C-alpha cells in the first residue's frame, strides 16, 4: 500500500502519470509526490546539482536570505544566527551577511553534509528551492523543526501548487529532481501538527514561526 511520505496517511489518489513518472496527491495533507520508484539515484542527482543548480541560483539565494534578514531585523534588531538548509551559498556572498553581524551556518546533504549542524538550534532557517527535492519530507521536516529555537523563523521558497487541476501542465514537475510538491494547505496542515504558526504561504514563499 502506497502512503504519503509527509503525513504517512494512505488516503492518496493518482493525479498524473506519463511514461516516466506517476504522481499522487495525499488527501490528508495535500502533498503531491512522485512515486518513489522514479527517484534519481543519488549519484545522478548529485551530478545534476553540481552541473546546474549550484551556480545558477546563487544570486537568487543571496537575495532571498538578504530580504529575509531585512524583514526579521524589523521585528528584532539583534544579530541573528541562522541555518541555510539544503543549498549552499558561496563564501563571497556570505560576506555581507557576516559583515552585518549575523552568523549563517550551511548544510547541504551533497556538498556540505555537516550533520552536527542539525543538532543545534537557530534563530532562523532558510530553505531556498529545497523542499521540492525531499525524498523523505517527513524526516526533513522533523529535522528542520527541531533545529529552530522557540520563536525562531522558518522561511521556505518553493513554488506552491495552486490546484491539482493544473498539475498536468505545470512545468515545475518535469525536472526529475523535483519529487515533492506543496499546496498552501500542506503548510497549514504542517503548522497545525507542529508547534509552528503559519504566517504566510503564497506563490513561492512560505513563512512560519515556532511557538516560543
Ligand atoms: Zn500526507
Automatic annotation (TrEMBL):
Q: Which GO terms describe its molecular function?
A: methyltransferase activity
Q: Which organism is it from?
A: Shewanella fodinae
- Print the keywords alphabetically: Methyltransferase, Transferase
| GO term, biological process aspect, one | methylation
Q: What is this protein called?
A: Methyltransferase family protein
Do the record's keywords include Cytoplasm? no
Amino acid at each position: 500500500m502506497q502512503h504519503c511520505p509527509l503525513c504517512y496517511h494512505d488516503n492518496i489518489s493518482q493525479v498524473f502519470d506519463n511514461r516516466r513518472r506517476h504522481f499522487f496527491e495525499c488527501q490528508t495533507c495535500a502533498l503531491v509526490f512522485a512515486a518513489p520508484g522514479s527517484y534519481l539515484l543519488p549519484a545522478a542527482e548529485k551530478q545534476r546539482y553540481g552541473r546546474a543548480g549550484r551556480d545558477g541560483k546563487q544570486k537568487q539565494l543571496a537575495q532571498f536570505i538578504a530580504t529575509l534578514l531585512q524583514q526579521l531585523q524589523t521585528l528584532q534588531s539583534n544579530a541573528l544566527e541562522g541555518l541555510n538548509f539544503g543549498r549552499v551559498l558561496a563564501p563571497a556572498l556570505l560576506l555581507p551577511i557576516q559583515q552585518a553581524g549575523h552568523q549563517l551556518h550551511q548544510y547541504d546533504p551533497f556538498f556540505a553534509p555537516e550533520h552536527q549542524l542539525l543538532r543545534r538550534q537557530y534563530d532562523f532557517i532558510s530553505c531556498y528551492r529545497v523542499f521540492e527535492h525531499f525524498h523523505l519530507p517527513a524526516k526533513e521536516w522533523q529535522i528542520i523543526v527541531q533545529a529552530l529555537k522557540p520563536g525562531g523563523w522558518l522561511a521556505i521558497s518553493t513554488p506552491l501548487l495552486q490546484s491539482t487541476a493544473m498539475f498536468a501542465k505545470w512545468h515545475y514537475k518535469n525536472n526529475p529532481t523535483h519529487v515533492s510538491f506543496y499546496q498552501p494547505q500542506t503548510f497549514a496542515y504542517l503548522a497545525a501538527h507542529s508547534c509552528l504558526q503559519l504566517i504566510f504561504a503564497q506563490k513561492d514563499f512560505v513563512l512560519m514561526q515556532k511557538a516560543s
